[in-house]
Amino acid sequence: QVQLVESGGGLVQAGGSLRLSCAASGRTFSTYTVAWFRQAPGKAREFVDAISRNGASTRYADSVKGRFTISRDNAKNTVYLQMNSLKPEDTAVYYCAASSLVQLFTTPSTYPYWGQGTQVTVSS
Questions:
Q1: Cα-based distances in Å from 90 to 4, 16, 48, 64, 84
Q2: Which of 41, 82, 105, 115 is a plausible cystine mate for 4, CB 3.0–4.6 Å?
Q3: Which residues pair with 122 in a beta bridge?
Q4: How far is residue 94's CA from residue 59's CA, in Å, rounded to a whole number?
Q5: Do β-strands 118-123 and 10-13 pair in parallel, antiparallel, or remain unpaired?
């Protein structure tokens, strides 16, 4: 029902910033809760942050709180992940995911729709 495409990944130095975008299809984008997850090689996929349908509520993993900001522009069918003060341990493939549920869940299995991922590499 919704297709997601991530972009904006790349190689940055520690302390730098990146902004990722998650572009979604369809006029019903505003009905979806959207979250970001990340996965490093050999590690499980982990929750990064999530945003409610109208953008009024957000939720962050402790590891990124104060450094990352999630936002959305429903008129553009896009969710953003602003990443500041990047650390080498932030290196991972970043995925956006969408759910029709209103709760801001942190487990990957609660999100039926996923993008293809975008690589973020932070060098030291």
A1: 22, 11, 10, 9, 11
A2: 115
A3: 12
A4: 16
A5: parallel
